[in-house]
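Obj: model holo form, ligand = S-adenosylmethionine.
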Amino acid sequence: MGHGKLKRFAENETFRCLLQPDASQVLDRREGVSGRGLPLSLKDHDIKGRWNEHMFGAPQPIVLELGCGRGEYTIDLSLRDPSYNYIGVDIKGARLWRGAKYAEEQQLPNVAFLRTRIEFITAFFAPGEVSDIWITFPDPQMSSENSRLTSPMFLERYRKFLRSGGVVRLKTDSRFLHEYTKAVCEANSLEVIACTDDLYANPGIEGGGALYEVKTHYEKMFLEQGFKITYLAFRLEHEGPLVNPSSFDAAYWRAAEAPRTTNLRGGTID
Ligand SMILES: C[S@@+](CC[C@H](N)C(=O)[O-])C[C@H]1O[C@@H](n2cnc3c(N)ncnc32)[C@H](O)[C@@H]1O
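Output (holo structure tokens):
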């Protein structure tokens, strides 16, 4: 591991706004592990239901950014609308370091970061504790439906803690993931409140100025490569089972998806 990464990891330990739990704090080892190495059961982390009390300056509705990387949305939204608290979630500490360092230096009272696998997210949030969710440029996971952050398997996790009628916002370069998520909404009668397969050709889409003005690290790379940016926002209601979409033509959209270059210089992209 490079010296720069080690330095960031050491600095991460000093950031008050960054929670980096050990896996042992959320995995119930007594239950063993499944074949894929995922826990069969999770146990609640102490912060669950207590984010406002322990991490923020004021009790306010909480917005999550999942797979936040450097946390561009988390930081920018916190400055645009200080009446919410924001938490960026990612597994990569070297990326989270950027957002967390900025939040520490600027002493932002309404920003926190959580380093965890999103698969464990229900261990950290209590029913109704989260107001809305942003998902920014996630890996499309074209060969594994249950790994997609907008699959019914993940939506089932989110709705355990999302307020009733809470909004999930997906901004992505991946037409595959955009079409898949549309199919999930259709199959489950989830109310779509905004949808476009070419965001910048359609000004005025619901989502606020940040939707157009904040460009994440990955978004900039994909824009440079000429890809269109898509956006989909939908309400995730609590009632009813969620099913996988049978109408989604994965083979078609997989073939339609042009390859991305995510590491243009061949170096680190943290
Ligand atoms: C393509 S990057 C996008 C990062 C950032 N949102 C952006 O737009 O620049 C996807 C991010 O999701 C994170 N990620 C992917 N799967 C994850 C998981 N299961 N749990 C936590 N983070 C995950 C990766 O570490 C990575 O930072």
